[in-house]
Design a protein that fits this description.
By secondary structure, the protein is α+β, with helices and mostly antiparallel strands. The chain has four helices and five strands. 44% of the residues lie in helices and 20% in strands. The protein has a five-stranded mixed beta barrel. A hairpin with a 6-residue loop joins strand 1 and strand 2. The radius of gyration is 29 Å and the shape is rod-shaped. About 12% of the residues have low confidence.
């Protein structure tokens, strides 16, 4: 190391990379909870003011450490290549900012993959299913139906009170008290 600038960029890169890697390992191991939707990792704490809250989504600890890591690495490389310091600072800042942009895009893409896991029984209405356990006359049986991409078995009654045998196809008309479905033959 020859100049203080090289030491500055090296220190920034090492500090940023160390915190970035440690934090990433802790997140992946589950020791630090990171909620993609609410960004508990934010430096801003007023959750009611959504406009100002959204404007601070760039300032997470993960993003700041990634910025300093790339800022330091690019700056060090450019200083060692004897490039003008002003151009070096601009390029290092741009690369750090671009890294933050990529992280935000990656985490927002992952957020779209997340589902609540809650089953909305109203999605069963209009769906076709198969009788799993015979539905007796004026009684209750079971049907197998795919709701929200998951095969499920639910109690079912025939809307018209007739018997429906195992294996017959049915059509869901309505939801009765939670998880019981009213069906008719298809």
């Amino acid at each position: 190391m020859e100049s203080p600038l090289e030491w500055f960029f090296l220190g920034t890169a090492i500090l940023g990379a160390s915190f970035f890697i440690i934090r990433l390992i802790l997140q992946l191991s589950g020791l630090i909870h990171f909620d993609i939707h609410t960004d508990h990792d934010l430096l801003h704490t007023d959750h009611d003011a959504s406009d100002s809250y959204d404007s601070f989504k760039f300032f997470t600890i993960q993003n700041l450490t990634a910025f300093f890591m790339m800022f330091g690495l690019v700056g060090l490389g450019m200083v060692r290549s004897h490039i003008n310091i002003l151009i070096t600072l601009i390029c290092a800042s741009f690369s750090g900012g671009f890294t933050v942009y990529l992280l935000i895009k990656i985490f927002s893409s992952v957020a779209h993959l997340e589902s609540s896991g809650s089953l909305d029984m109203m999605n069963a209405i209009g769906q076709e299913g198969v009788v799993y356990l015979t539905i007796p006359t004026n009684g209750s049986g079971q049907i197998q139906i795919s709701i929200q991409g998951r095969m499920q078995i639910f109690d079912a009654i025939c809307e018209h009170g007739e018997r429906i045998e195992t294996g017959e196809r049915v059509f869901v008309l309505r939801v009765i008290d939670g998880y019981t479905l009213s069906v008719e033959k298809k």
